[in-house]
Amino acid sequence: MKINFTKMQGLGNDFVVIDAINQPIQLTIEQIRFLADRHFGVGCDQLLFVEKPISANAEFKYRIFNADGSEVAQCGNGARCFARFVRDKGLSNKDEIIVDTDARQLALRFDAGGLITVDMGVPALEPKQIPLNVSEQSKLYKVKLAEGEIEFAAVSMGNPHVVILVEDVVSAPVLTIGARLECHELFPERANIGFMQIINRRQIELRVYERGAAETLACGSGACAAVVAGIEQGLLDQEVQVHLPGGELTISWVGNGLPVLMTGAATTVFEGQITL
Ligand SMILES: N[C@@H](CCC[C@H](N)C(=O)O)C(=O)O
């Protein structure tokens, strides 16, 4: 079987995007892992599928798979690439595109100047919704690891995020603590682990160890979760520039019950065909 794909990236968080409307396919976990493999396949952090919508008001269903083959319900950088893909392929000519995901609907909007803004939906802080195995909701939680006690905030953006405040993001133990916490028993569906350094009330540095993909150059939903956690703790203003290893995002959140907005770039790298 031959598959046509497009390789895309948003701040170096990279994707294999497949039009599964005009090329209907169901891939196995092994085939997804193969496509994501940087040595034997195409290579990406996530695979994105463009499918027919479920709801009457949506244009598409946006399906997301991590490099390890797990299906997830949210990917912010991928959402901007999804918007660019459906427009470039002539699948939609709208300036605002509504997509279904497994968790929620997202609105993807083309801005003047070539950037794309995604309405990422309302963040959830209740432990059950994250999900996080604790009995009471709190702004900060603690976990004991071999490396010592870690304090963290937890936020769902449709996917589970941990946010740890660090003094220096460059020397933060992202790979060790990230890998250990991703699969910790506190997180029954695993979690994405963000390490946030606050520069000032309107700027942060962030590195994210992603569930199912290890450390990536940027995580859009992780950037939203970090800003929500920072605002909740009274450390950040409502609009924040997030500096990630692969580039910058603008995140804004007015507060409780309202959606988080994420603005950034999305780029096509190349097109290809691969035999499975
Ligand atoms: N890179 C993404 C998040 C992708 C999914 C994540 N690894 C998960 O398992 O929840 C983003 O930009 O948000």
Automatic annotation (TrEMBL):
<feature type="binding site">
    <location>
        <position position="66"/>
    </location>
    <ligand>
        <name>substrate</name>
    </ligand>
</feature>
<comment type="function">
    <text>Catalyzes the stereoinversion of LL-2,6-diaminopimelate (L,L-DAP) to meso-diaminopimelate (meso-DAP), a precursor of L-lysine and an essential component of the bacterial peptidoglycan.</text>
</comment>
<keyword id="KW-0457">Lysine biosynthesis</keyword>
<feature type="binding site">
    <location>
        <position position="159"/>
    </location>
    <ligand>
        <name>substrate</name>
    </ligand>
</feature>
<keyword id="KW-0963">Cytoplasm</keyword>
<feature type="site" description="Could be important to modulate the pK values of the two catalytic cysteine residues">
    <location>
        <position position="210"/>
    </location>
</feature>
<feature type="binding site">
    <location>
        <begin position="76"/>
        <end position="77"/>
    </location>
    <ligand>
        <name>substrate</name>
    </ligand>
</feature>
<comment type="pathway">
    <text>Amino-acid biosynthesis; L-lysine biosynthesis via DAP pathway; DL-2,6-diaminopimelate from LL-2,6-diaminopimelate: step 1/1.</text>
</comment>
<keyword id="KW-0413">Isomerase</keyword>
<feature type="binding site">
    <location>
        <position position="13"/>
    </location>
    <ligand>
        <name>substrate</name>
    </ligand>
</feature>
<feature type="binding site">
    <location>
        <begin position="220"/>
        <end position="221"/>
    </location>
    <ligand>
        <name>substrate</name>
    </ligand>
</feature>
<feature type="active site">
    <location>
        <position position="75"/>
    </location>
</feature>
<feature type="binding site">
    <location>
        <position position="192"/>
    </location>
    <ligand>
        <name>substrate</name>
    </ligand>
</feature>
<comment type="similarity">
    <text>Belongs to the diaminopimelate epimerase family.</text>
</comment>
<keyword id="KW-0028">Amino-acid biosynthesis</keyword>
<dbReference type="InterPro" id="IPR001653">
    <property type="entry name" value="DAP_epimerase_DapF"/>
</dbReference>
<feature type="active site" description="Proton acceptor">
    <location>
        <position position="219"/>
    </location>
</feature>
<feature type="binding site">
    <location>
        <begin position="210"/>
        <end position="211"/>
    </location>
    <ligand>
        <name>substrate</name>
    </ligand>
</feature>
<protein>
    <recommendedName>
        <fullName>Diaminopimelate epimerase</fullName>
        <ecNumber>5.1.1.7</ecNumber>
    </recommendedName>
</protein>
<feature type="active site" description="Proton donor">
    <location>
        <position position="75"/>
    </location>
</feature>
<dbReference type="InterPro" id="IPR018510">
    <property type="entry name" value="DAP_epimerase_AS"/>
</dbReference>
<dbReference type="GO" id="GO:0008837">
    <property type="term" value="F:diaminopimelate epimerase activity"/>
</dbReference>
<feature type="site" description="Could be important to modulate the pK values of the two catalytic cysteine residues">
    <location>
        <position position="161"/>
    </location>
</feature>
<feature type="site" description="Important for dimerization">
    <location>
        <position position="270"/>
    </location>
</feature>
<feature type="binding site">
    <location>
        <position position="46"/>
    </location>
    <ligand>
        <name>substrate</name>
    </ligand>
</feature>
<comment type="subunit">
    <text>Homodimer.</text>
</comment>
<dbReference type="Pfam" id="PF01678">
    <property type="entry name" value="DAP_epimerase"/>
</dbReference>
